[in-house]
Amino acid sequence: MVEDGGEEEAEGESAEMPAAAAPLQRCNGFLPGKEAAGGGRAAPAGGGEQPAPAAPAAPEAEAMLAASGGRPEARLETRLSRRRLAVLAVFSCYSLVNAFQWIQYSILSNVFAGFYGVTFPQIDWLSMVYMVAYVPLILPATWLLDARGLRLTALLGAGLNALGAWLKCGSLAPQRYPLTLAAQAVCAVAQVFILGLPSRIASVWFGPTEVSTACAVAVLGNQLGTAIGFLLPPVLVPNTPNDIDLMAHNIGIMFYGTAIVSTLLFFLTGVVFEEKPKYPPSHSQAVLQSKPPEDYSYKQSIINLFKNIPFILLLISYGIMTGAFYSVSTLLNQMIVTHYEGEEVNAGRIGLTLVVAGMVGSIICGLWLDYTKTYKQTTLIVYILSFIGLLVFTFTLDLGYLIVVFVTGGVLGFFMTGYLPLGFEFAVEITYPESEGTSSGLLNASAQIFGIVFTLVQGKLTTDYSPRAGNIFLCAWIFVGIILTALIKSDLRRHNVNSGIMNLDVKAVPVDSPVEPESTTLKIQSAL
Known about the structure:
Elements: E1 8-9, H1 11-16, H2 59-66, E2 79-80, H3 83-103, H4 109-116, H5 120-148, H6 150-168, H7 177-192, H8 197-205, H9 211-236, H10 244-272, H11 283-289, H12 298-307, H13 309-339, H14 344-372, H15 375-396, H16 402-416, H17 419-431, H18 436-464, H19 467-486, H20 493-499
Antiparallel strand pairs: 1-2
Helix pairs in contact: 3-6, 3-7, 3-9, 3-10, 4-5, 5-6, 5-7, 5-18, 6-7, 6-10, 8-9, 8-18, 9-14, 9-17, 13-14, 13-17, 13-18, 13-19, 14-16, 14-17, 15-16, 15-17, 15-19, 17-18, 18-19
C-alpha cells in the first residue's frame, strides 16, 4: 500500500495562518472535567523556524495534547496527504458504477418491460428499490461509519455493488424479473454505504480551502454514473421486440461489463482506502480527532441533529429538491416518448445533457463555496433557479422540438443537480462537530423518502393525465422548498473554528446548548 511519506503542508492553512505569526484559533476542545494542566508553547508548523515567545497555550493546543499526556512535542500537525486524491478517485469511480446500475433500467423502461413481460410500474420499482432500501438502513449504516470507520464502510459499498452486478448476469431470461429485482436490491443496499461518504471523505482527507470542491467531486462521480446510465444503455440495448435472443445478448454485454468493472474497483478500494491520513488536514479535524472515542455517543449525535432547527429545515428542503431530481430521472423516458414516440436514444441523450450540465454546476458551486463560504446565499439562489428551470422545462416539453428539450433539460440539470453537494456541505457547516456521515446520511434518507412519493405520484399523474401535470406537482413542492431554505439560519460552525473566530467545545452539543461567548468584534452574522 502507498505510504503517506512526502506529505505536504496544507497550502490553505499555511497561507491563512503563518506558522510563526498567527496563533492557533481559540477553541474549547475539552470535555467537562478533562482539562489538561499546564501551558507550554505551540511549536511552529514549519518545524524549521524559531518558536514564538513563550505564551500560554491556546485551548485548542491543549485539546490536541490531551490524548498524549500534555507533551508539546506530540502536538498534532495539519498536513495534506497525497493519498487523498487516490481515495477521492476510487470512491468517485465505484459511486459512478452504483449510479449507473440505478438508472440503467429506467432509461430503457419500454425495452425491459417488453423483455421481462412486466408493466411500467414494475420497471419503475427497479429504480425505487434504491430509495426504499435506503430509508430503513441509513441509521445502521451511519452507525457503522462512526463506529467502525471509513475503510470498512467503503469496502462494504464497493463489495455489495460488485455482488449485485454479478447477480444481474443470472437474470438474462424473460422469466427472471424477480432475480433482477433482487440483484438491484443488493445494489440498493450498497448505495446506503456510498451516498453518505462524500462529506466524510472531504472533511477527513482535505484541507479547508478545498473541502467543498472535494465534496463536489465525490458527488460528481455519482452524477457521472447517472449520465453514463442515460447514454450507454440505449446504445448497447436497442429496442428489438421481434428478436428476444438478440435483446438478451445485448443486455448481457451491459451486465457483464458492469460486473467486471465493479469487481476491479472493489479490489482498488481495498488497496487505496485508509481510515484517515497520518496528519489531520485542518484544525477542525485536529480538534475532533483529539477527542477520546469513548466520549462519542451515536445516539446523542442523532438527538442533537434533530434539535438543530436549521438542520431540520435543510433536511426537508434537501429532500424535496433531490427527491424531485430522482423522480424526473426515473420518469424521463416516459415523459419523452409520450411526446416523441420512438426517441428512446434521444431520451437517453437528454438525460445525459441534464446530468452533465449538473456536473458542471456541482464543480462551479464547490469552487464558489471554497472561495466565498456563502453557503446559504448560494443554496437559496440555486434553489430558485432550479424552480425556474423546471417550469421552463415543463411548458416547453410538448412543443415538438427536441432541441428545445435538450436546452431546457441542460438548464434544469445545471441547477438541480448542482444543488446536491451544496446541501451536503451546508449541513456539515451548521451541524459541526457532529459526524459528517450522520448528517449527510439523514439528508439522503429524506431524499429517498421524497423520491419514492414523488415518483409514485408523478408517475400516476403522467400516466393518467400528462407529463405536464406531473411536473407541475413537482414545481409546487420545490416552491415550498424555497421558502424553507430562506428560513435557515446560517451558522457556519466548522468554518468559524477553522478561521479561529468561534470558541466551540469539541464535544458534540445541540444548537441551543451554551457555548462560550463570542467576541462582539468577530461575530459572524448571516447575510440573509
